[in-house]
Amino acid sequence: MLPKVLVDADGCPVIDETIKVAKQFGLQVLLFCDTSHAIDRPEAETIIVSKGADAVDFKLVNHVRKGDIIVTQDYGLASMVLAKKGYAINQNGWEYTSENIGQLLEFRYTSQKIRRAGGRLKGPKKRQKENDEKFEQALTELCIRAIN
Description:
Belongs to the UPF0178 family. The chain is of the alpha/beta class. Helix 1 packs parallel to helix 5 and helix 3 (75-83) runs antiparallel to helix 4. The chain has helices at residues 15-24, 55-63, 75-83, 101-116, 129-147; strands at residues 5-8, 29-34, 45-49, 69-71, 87-89, 95-96.
């Protein structure tokens, strides 16, 4: 059975690139979003969840099966996907693994503490075309691994 590609689509900058790569492998794409981000692509199935803290994440993780590929920026969601033996990749083509997820979750926790205390952190750099190309290449490699 072929894996599916599930996308945490709220704010995801690589939806079209994900669909393009998945199509090359004949993989089904599911887009998960809340009612304020209703995203519609004819080549993908959209699953709309009512707004709420982590509602999309929980709906998505409940659809994950072993070997599925998830596109997300969320470390917490990525850790739940890894626990279910899925693959997780971010919008820049960086794969979350059991080796790096603990450090990422710790970084997220520390960052939240800094923000709660009134501190500020630098945001991400402006997205470039090279980011999309790197993502497509990494997702292609991940699809090959997931299929085999």
